Amino acid sequence: MASSMRAPADSLESTKCESAQASPMSDNRERAVDVSTVRERVATRDGIDRSEDVMAAIEERAEEGRLALDAFADWHRECRRERRSTATDLDAAEARFRELLAGLDPADREIDQVRARVDEYETQFDAMREELAAAADRLAETPREPSSPVSVYEGAEHLSACGRAIHEVAHGLHHVEEGIDEFETWLHDPETRIDALGDEIGGFERYLDNTEALVARLEAGGGDGEEPFDAWLAAHHLQRVMAVVVDELRTDVAELEGWLARRAGDYEDEVARLRDQLDSLSERHAACSERLDAASASIDGFAEQRAAVAASVERFETALDDLEQPVDWGEVEDLLQAQFDELDISVR
After folding, report:
1. 129-132: long-range pairs with CB below 8 Å, 24+
2. What angle do CA 304, 309, 312 make, to 5 degrees?
3. Which of 98, 162, 294, 334 is the most buried (most CB within 10 A)?
4. pLDDT above 90 covers what percent of the chain?
């Protein structure tokens, strides 16, 4: 949260005393400030890093090099209006989402894939509300009519930040609303659910393609400039993540089959194709793990290098084992990235 904009030492009265010939802020008749004065005062004020984006925003609202305090007040009102409008749109989207959930059969509401999607939307709604609340706080702390050149800059900095945050929330909300449209279709249409799960399995097939390519380079003696043990360690972590994926997908297929059994129609062939697709992925994963184990024998000093990272790898694997369903894949990605950073692992 931004600090208060009140700065008695930087008041209009004290600023006038700095120069008897030319006041940086105008008198009550003109009520304007020179943009050049704002630049100069900010440049000489300790603790302020002048942003050209903020200065550009000031200049955009200035006329003939002077920013009227009325124009600044209009900017403030514009930000408040846009924040209220975006908050209203957010309320409407969330109300529609709640209405959608209220119409679900309780048994369907407990399906892991449904819970995962609901959690994702609720997290997004919470994040957008926090952004708008922070924007409201900034606006409350920003005077509508700043009393000095420096406070003009600081106020403009706050209003610029508010504008960006509100724009990002509005943009994100547009995508959330599109996602809710798709979610509503997915909730009720068997073919959409079947296709979506098939696409998800296909995405993880491509994920495994990358791991297999890494193992193939390792079997061939390593890539150009690539440390064999680093390649092995990267592949090992990706394989551990894939084990979580396969388990989660098996649960998803079983839940989909149970959901389809409560719908009209015969979907046995579609479910069988999904099971075959998942079995193929599982078999590839197992074969890749065997190749990875075999490749370790050709790595010089493997046992010593493996022992050096054993504690870190064990913590990572324990964190994966402790994940609850439905698995938060964002959390998995964060765990993996943190582990790669800790061990200085890179995947080429």
Report:
1. 129/90, 131/165, 131/166, 131/168, 131/169, 132/83, 132/86, 132/87, 132/90, 132/165, 132/166, 132/169
2. 160
3. 162
4. 78
